[in-house]
Design a protein that fits this description.
Elements: H1 6-17, H2 20-25, E1 28-33, E2 36-42, H3 56-72, E3 80-90, E4 98-108, E5 113-125, E6 128-144
Antiparallel strand pairs: 1-2, 2-4, 3-6, 4-5, 5-6
Length: 150
């Protein structure tokens, strides 16, 4: 597997660190590679819905962010990333200790990047992690620069 250029990795991590929502959810970058990003976040009490499972808002935010940062790893060094549209299919309740979102690029173009993400609920019992697919997302990202951010 190809490693990320150090400048792209630093830019991606710095951008992620500015995501206040991800900080609030306790999300971290687990893995970065060209066209791929894996994030994880605990299912905190602030992110649970009335049935006690992870809220779809957490699932969507984590999947969207993982897909976006997967796209950013393939964009020009001066670019940032922004979601144009994102669709989610919720497959199962987010029941577990944490969510893990695996984002990847399907096709990177000059202006439009098509992305996908799978979000898993993970429960650790006796040191072994069990995962269940809870959502699939598909969307489109675009690069933005200081010139076109406003």
């Amino acid at each position: 597997m190809t490693a990320l250029a150090p400048t792209i990795e630093r830019k991606t991590r710095d951008s992620f660190d500015r995501q206040a929502l991800m900080t609030t959810f306790g999300a971290t970058i687990v893995h970065l590679a060209p066209g791929a990003c894996t994030l994880a976040a605990p299912i905190l009490p602030i992110a649970r819905q009335q049935h006690g499972v992870g809220h779809a808002g957490l699932t969507f935010a984590l999947g969207d962010t993982a897909a976006g940062y997967a796209a950013l790893t393939l964009m020009a060094e001066e670019a940032e990333v922004m979601t144009v549209e994102m669709k989610i299919n919720l497959m199962a309740p987010a029941r577990g200790d944490r969510l893990v979102a695996e984002g990847r690029v399907i096709r990177a173009g000059r202006r439009i990047t098509v992305v996908t993400a799978e979000v898993f609920a993970e429960t650790t019992t006796a040191g072994a992690a069990e995962r269940e697919l809870v959502a699939i997302l598909q969307g489109t990202m675009v690069p933005v620069t200081a010139r076109n951010r406003t």
